[in-house]
Amino acid sequence: MSTFILAFVFFLVVAVAMAVGYIFQQKTIAGSCGGLGALGIAKACDCPEPCDRKKMRMEKEQSRQAKLNEWKKNQIL
């Protein structure tokens, strides 16, 4: 049982040290491998045709943008 407690305390100290280092450096967390850009992939879904869910999201965004443009056009200033 003492080994478990000792290991837990060790990992807790390491996690706290990393958190303190992150707070003081004020850097964003970044991966070490470069992500999808390192593999030459431009986006997460490299499909030629977007899926139905993405099409729905795109239509929703277009309608939202159209409403926003209409609102700006009718805005009184």
Task: Lay out the secondary structure.
Layout: H1 2-25, H2 52-74
Give an account of the 3D structure.
This protein has helices at 2-25, 52-74. With 77 residues, the protein is an all-alpha fold. It is elongated and about 70 Å long.
User: What is the makeup of the main sheet?
Assistant: none
Please work out how many helical segments DSSP would assign.
2
The structural class is mainly alpha
Q: Cα distance, first to last residue?
A: 71 Å
The total of beta strands comes to 0
SSE pattern: HH
Radius of gyration (Å): 24 Å
Helical residue percent? 55-70%
Uncertain segments are none
Broad shape: elongated
What amount of the residues lies in strands?
under 5%
Mean pLDDT: 82
Summarize the structure.
This protein has about 80 residues and is mainly α.
Jot down its keywords.
61% helix, 0% strand, mainly alpha, elongated, 2 helices, 77 residues, single chain
